[in-house]
Amino acid sequence: MTAGRRFGYAVDPWFRPLVLPFGFRPSRDGVTLEDDTLVATFGFLTVRTALDNISGAHVTRDYRWWTSFGIRTSWTDDGLTFGTNHDAGVCIHFDDKVPSPLRRSGHSALTVTVQDLAGLAEALGGDGTDGPDPEAVA
Asked: Please, which pLDDT band fits residue 2 given cuts at 50, 70 and 90?
């Protein structure tokens, strides 16, 4: 059962001063799976969507450190990241884009750097392993 599960962020100690300006508080922020809703908070921003709007989730790894902290949008697609480390996170894909004040058209994916990567990915229908290797897919 996924209802009421909370996944806290895995915060790299070096990143802590970098995420504080976003209003981030480790004790308050995280990803929560409620009865039929996913709620992801990161300081001043909240993403909320129905669980049935989630089309998949997989683990991603090894981010560039300068693009992996705080709240950021992708330069290559319409994804959103809530980042607290450069090691790993879960990329959550949506059927319908989720609204955000950062992008008028919304976001089709959200990456969150939580502590329990496999647990969150599995709770959202993924298998808890890393996503597809881009070179293997080509």
From this structure: low
